[in-house]
Amino acid sequence: MAERFTVIGATGYIGSRLVRHLQALGHTVWAPSRGDAALLEQPLAHVLYCAGLTGDFRTRPFDTVEAHVGLLARVLQCAQFDSLLYLSSTRVYMGAASTHEDAALSVVPGDPSYLYNLSKLTGESLCHASGRPGVRVARLSNVVGPGMDVDSGNLVADLIQQARSTGRVELRSDPASAKDYIHLEDVVNGLVRIALQGRHAVYNLASGVQTSHADWLGWLGRQTGCTVHVAPDAPLQSFPPINVSRLLHEWPGAIQHSLWDPLLVSAFQPQE
């Protein structure tokens, strides 16, 4: 059945792909521009809250808090909607003993790197405390797909840009470093499922599989023929595996797309 959606943050990488995906499914989509007063004046139906900053959050702390918390607070307090799905991040598990959605989390307010985590967690807490029905949170892992934005701080996008632009990749972390990555197509499919059918308040939207930097470098070398140089004393970046049991219990086929998508490289426009 066709539904109506409002995508907040529709100009971003995930938001823009969500708009196209929803339209392809036959849904009606409104993508309000930044500062559109109508956001708080008209019925929004199902809201997908994608507004946020990623790679530049350290240099734009006030914009980060406004996107992750300020605008969200106004929508939760004043807007008319049937459901709202807030996009958070699996970065919030940094330093935690468990990556289950109900785990206790750890933060270090004095470390500027934690501003992203703290603002996302504040947004999550607002969602839970709002008392509004149909409000959920999706914690996204590292998203890869055609058209990735290098400025977002995405490691894979950076590696592809280097390979396409110069034929040489400079890795500034230990190749054994590993993270959880998920393909963009699984993300947009998962977000729509959670928004319309989710039975829980919080979901990890991740692959549940660790992929090392060495894995990416090997694949990229086969795709482009690039050479690799690892910086001296490159640090090992260790991230815990993400628990996806809740996601896969409700939707066993939620993770379908291979990370090793040739379009990641062929769709990338190298810089001059």
Automatic annotation (TrEMBL):
Taking the record's annotation, the residue ranges forming a coiled coil are: none
Source domain of life is Bacteria
Pfam families xrefs: Epimerase (PF01370)
What InterPro entries does the database record attribute to this sequence? Epimerase_deHydtase (IPR001509), Lipid_A_modif_metabolic_enz (IPR050177), NAD(P)-bd_dom_sf (IPR036291)
Tell me what this protein is called: SDR family oxidoreductase
As given in the record, the signal peptide range reads none
**Organism in which the protein naturally occurs:** Acidovorax lacteus
Q: Which residues form the NAD-dependent epimerase/dehydratase domain?
A: 6-205
